[in-house]
Specification:
RapZ_C, 127 residues, 4 strands, alpha/beta, four-stranded parallel beta sheet, RapZ-like, ATPase
C-alpha cells in the first residue's frame, strides 16, 4: 500500500497517528444537523452531495492530495498515512476520505490507496 486514509470520529476516540490529519469539525457544516441526513452515512448519496457542496471542501481535498504527493516525493520510502476526522465519523470524514482516495487514484496510475472507515458503522452520537 502506498497511501492509507482513515476516516474517524473524534467523539469515538483519539485521532489515529498519521502524516497528515484533517479536522473537519469546526470549519465545515455537519450534515448531522439536518434531520433527514442524521441517520445516513457517506454510503448514501444525499450525504456525499451535501458534504461535497460545502464551500472549501474540494480545495481542501486538492490540497491534501498535493501534500500526499509531496510526502511521496521525499527521499524516504514507506506508505503515507492520512487521517480525516469529524465529530462522529459518519458523514464529512468518510466522504472526504473516499473522495481523496479517488483523486489520488485518478492522478497516479498504479498507486495503491486503501481507505479504512474506523467509525462509519458506529451509532449516531446524540448531542
Amino acid at each position: 500500500m502506498n497511501v492509507l486514509i482513515t476516516s474517524f470520529g473524534y467523539l469515538h476516540g483519539e485521532a489515529p497517528e498519521a502524516h497528515v490529519t484533517l479536522d473537519l469539525r469546526h470549519h465545515f457544516r455537519d450534515p448531522h444537523v439536518s434531520p433527514e441526513l442524521r441517520y445516513m452515512t457517506a454510503d448514501d448519496r444525499p450525504v456525499r452531495e451535501a458534504v461535497l457542496r460545502t464551500p472549501g471542501i474540494l480545495p481542501l481535498i486538492d490540497a491534501t492530495a498535493a501534500a500526499v504527493r509531496a510526502y511521496q516525493a521525499g527521499p524516504s520510502t514507506g506508505p503515507v498515512t492520512v487521517a480525516v476526522g469529524c465529530a462522529g465519523g459518519r458523514h464529512r470524514a468518510a466522504t472526504v476520505a473516499r473522495t481523496l482516495a479517488s483523486v489520488l487514484r485518478d492522478e497516479s496510475e498504479g498507486l495503491r490507496v486503501v481507505v479504512a472507515d474506523r467509525d462509519l458503522s458506529r451509532p449516531v452520537v446524540q448531542r
